From TrEMBL:
SUPFAM superfamilies: FAD/NAD(P)-binding domain. It comes from the Bacteria. Residues 155-173 have a biased composition (Low complexity). This is NADH dehydrogenase FAD-containing subunit. The keyword Flavoprotein applies. Residues 7-139 form the FAD/NAD(P)-binding domain.
Protein backbone atom coordinates (compact mmCIF):
# COMPACT_ATOMS: atom_id res chain seq x y z
CA UNK A 1 0.00 0.00 0.00
CA UNK A 2 1.55 3.31 -1.05
CA UNK A 3 1.16 6.35 1.12
CA UNK A 4 1.06 9.83 -0.43
CA UNK A 5 3.37 12.15 1.51
CA UNK A 6 1.76 15.11 3.26
CA UNK A 7 2.38 18.44 1.54
CA UNK A 8 3.83 21.04 3.90
CA UNK A 9 4.26 24.55 2.46
CA UNK A 10 6.30 27.22 4.24
CA UNK A 11 5.80 30.77 2.94
CA UNK A 12 8.66 33.15 3.72
CA UNK A 13 12.40 32.83 4.18
CA UNK A 14 13.02 35.17 7.08
CA UNK A 15 14.18 33.79 10.42
CA UNK A 16 10.82 32.18 11.28
CA UNK A 17 10.27 30.60 7.86
CA UNK A 18 13.88 29.45 7.54
CA UNK A 19 13.94 27.78 10.96
CA UNK A 20 10.47 26.25 10.50
CA UNK A 21 11.36 24.77 7.10
CA UNK A 22 14.71 23.45 8.31
CA UNK A 23 13.23 21.84 11.43
CA UNK A 24 10.30 20.31 9.54
CA UNK A 25 12.66 18.90 6.90
CA UNK A 26 14.81 17.41 9.70
CA UNK A 27 12.03 15.79 11.71
CA UNK A 28 9.67 14.66 8.93
CA UNK A 29 10.91 11.73 6.84
CA UNK A 30 10.57 12.40 3.10
CA UNK A 31 8.31 9.39 2.66
CA UNK A 32 5.85 11.00 5.12
CA UNK A 33 6.06 14.65 4.10
CA UNK A 34 7.32 16.90 1.33
CA UNK A 35 8.38 20.32 2.64
CA UNK A 36 8.22 23.15 0.10
CA UNK A 37 9.47 26.65 0.82
CA UNK A 38 8.15 29.63 -1.16
CA UNK A 39 10.31 32.73 -0.97
CA UNK A 40 10.66 35.97 -2.89
CA UNK A 41 14.45 35.62 -2.60
CA UNK A 42 16.93 32.78 -2.85
CA UNK A 43 18.45 33.54 0.55
CA UNK A 44 17.86 34.36 4.19
CA UNK A 45 19.09 37.87 4.93
CA UNK A 46 20.80 37.97 8.33
CA UNK A 47 19.18 41.34 9.04
CA UNK A 48 20.93 42.20 12.34
CA UNK A 49 24.06 42.83 10.24
CA UNK A 50 22.37 45.07 7.64
CA UNK A 51 23.73 48.24 9.31
CA UNK A 52 27.22 46.83 8.73
CA UNK A 53 26.45 46.46 5.00
CA UNK A 54 25.02 50.00 4.85
CA UNK A 55 28.14 51.35 6.59
CA UNK A 56 30.40 49.43 4.22
CA UNK A 57 32.00 47.21 6.85
CA UNK A 58 30.53 43.99 5.39
CA UNK A 59 29.81 42.86 1.85
CA UNK A 60 26.16 41.88 1.26
CA UNK A 61 27.04 38.29 0.36
CA UNK A 62 28.45 37.78 3.86
CA UNK A 63 24.99 38.12 5.42
CA UNK A 64 23.05 36.16 2.79
CA UNK A 65 22.47 32.51 3.71
CA UNK A 66 21.55 30.56 0.55
CA UNK A 67 18.33 28.56 0.85
CA UNK A 68 19.48 25.77 -1.45
CA UNK A 69 21.68 23.45 0.54
CA UNK A 70 20.77 25.00 3.90
CA UNK A 71 17.25 23.69 4.48
CA UNK A 72 16.90 20.10 3.36
CA UNK A 73 13.49 20.88 1.85
CA UNK A 74 12.00 18.75 -0.89
CA UNK A 75 11.53 21.88 -3.00
CA UNK A 76 12.32 25.60 -2.88
CA UNK A 77 10.28 27.90 -5.11
CA UNK A 78 11.48 31.44 -5.69
CA UNK A 79 8.37 33.46 -6.34
CA UNK A 80 5.66 35.64 -4.91
CA UNK A 81 2.58 34.31 -3.16
CA UNK A 82 -0.43 35.87 -4.86
CA UNK A 83 -3.04 34.36 -2.57
CA UNK A 84 -4.13 31.46 -0.41
CA UNK A 85 -7.33 29.50 -0.99
CA UNK A 86 -7.93 28.21 2.54
CA UNK A 87 -11.11 26.30 1.59
CA UNK A 88 -9.35 24.27 -1.12
CA UNK A 89 -5.94 24.27 0.62
CA UNK A 90 -3.95 25.82 -2.21
CA UNK A 91 -1.32 28.54 -2.40
CA UNK A 92 -1.16 30.60 -5.61
CA UNK A 93 2.46 31.35 -6.49
CA UNK A 94 3.81 33.54 -9.31
CA UNK A 95 7.28 32.29 -10.24
CA UNK A 96 7.55 32.93 -13.94
CA UNK A 97 4.28 31.07 -14.30
CA UNK A 98 1.24 30.87 -12.03
CA UNK A 99 1.31 27.74 -9.86
CA UNK A 100 -1.37 26.35 -7.60
CA UNK A 101 0.44 24.58 -4.77
CA UNK A 102 -1.66 22.12 -2.74
CA UNK A 103 -0.95 21.81 0.96
CA UNK A 104 -1.97 19.71 3.94
CA UNK A 105 -0.16 21.98 6.39
CA UNK A 106 0.68 25.65 5.79
CA UNK A 107 3.19 27.81 7.64
CA UNK A 108 2.79 31.54 6.97
CA UNK A 109 6.00 33.29 8.00
CA UNK A 110 6.00 36.23 5.63
CA UNK A 111 7.99 38.58 7.84
CA UNK A 112 7.87 42.32 7.40
CA UNK A 113 8.66 45.05 4.91
CA UNK A 114 9.72 48.65 5.30
CA UNK A 115 6.66 50.63 6.32
CA UNK A 116 5.99 54.06 4.88
CA UNK A 117 5.28 56.34 7.80
CA UNK A 118 3.21 59.48 7.70
CA UNK A 119 6.20 61.78 8.21
CA UNK A 120 6.30 64.56 5.58
CA UNK A 121 9.18 64.04 3.13
CA UNK A 122 10.17 60.64 4.48
CA UNK A 123 9.04 58.61 1.47
CA UNK A 124 10.82 60.97 -0.97
CA UNK A 125 14.12 61.24 0.87
CA UNK A 126 14.48 58.15 3.07
CA UNK A 127 15.37 54.52 2.50
CA UNK A 128 14.39 51.31 4.22
CA UNK A 129 16.85 48.90 5.78
CA UNK A 130 15.20 45.46 5.59
CA UNK A 131 16.85 43.81 2.56
CA UNK A 132 20.32 43.30 1.12
CA UNK A 133 19.42 45.60 -1.77
CA UNK A 134 18.43 48.39 0.64
CA UNK A 135 21.65 47.99 2.62
CA UNK A 136 23.73 48.25 -0.55
CA UNK A 137 21.60 51.14 -1.82
CA UNK A 138 22.26 53.11 1.37
CA UNK A 139 25.97 52.31 1.30
CA UNK A 140 26.61 53.41 -2.29
CA UNK A 141 25.58 57.10 -1.93
CA UNK A 142 27.34 57.36 1.45
CA UNK A 143 30.54 56.04 -0.06
CA UNK A 144 30.36 58.06 -3.29
CA UNK A 145 29.78 61.32 -1.39
CA UNK A 146 33.28 60.97 0.08
CA UNK A 147 34.95 61.41 -3.29
CA UNK A 148 32.80 64.38 -4.26
CA UNK A 149 34.42 67.86 -4.09
CA UNK A 150 31.23 69.29 -2.60
CA UNK A 151 30.23 68.52 0.98
CA UNK A 152 27.67 65.74 1.29
CA UNK A 153 24.12 66.64 2.27
CA UNK A 154 23.14 66.54 5.90
CA UNK A 155 21.80 63.12 6.77
CA UNK A 156 19.09 62.43 9.31
CA UNK A 157 17.92 59.05 10.53
CA UNK A 158 14.41 58.05 11.48
CA UNK A 159 13.21 54.78 12.86
CA UNK A 160 12.59 52.64 15.89
CA UNK A 161 14.29 49.61 17.24
CA UNK A 162 17.81 48.35 17.44
CA UNK A 163 18.48 48.33 13.68
CA UNK A 164 17.67 52.04 13.30
CA UNK A 165 19.60 53.18 16.33
CA UNK A 166 22.63 51.06 15.50
CA UNK A 167 22.71 52.12 11.84
CA UNK A 168 23.06 55.86 12.27
CA UNK A 169 26.36 56.00 14.21
CA UNK A 170 28.07 53.68 11.74
CA UNK A 171 27.26 55.58 8.57
CA UNK A 172 30.10 58.13 8.70
CA UNK A 173 32.64 55.31 9.18
CA UNK A 174 33.33 55.13 5.42
CA UNK A 175 34.02 58.83 5.07
CA UNK A 176 37.60 60.06 5.24
CA UNK A 177 37.99 62.05 8.47
CA UNK A 178 39.11 65.40 7.03
CA UNK A 179 38.30 65.44 3.31
CA UNK A 180 34.57 65.23 3.69
CA UNK A 181 32.10 67.14 5.84
CA UNK A 182 28.70 65.84 6.76
Amino acid sequence: MSHTPAQVVVVGSGFAGFIAARKLAQILPRERAEVTMVSATDHLCYSPLLPEVAAGRLDPQHIAVPLHGSLGCSRILQGRVEGVDFDNRKVRVACGEELSLPYDRLVLATGSVTREVLTPGLSEFAFGLKTLAEGQFIHDPCCSSCSSPTPPPIRRYAGRGSRSSSSAPGMPARRPPRSCRG
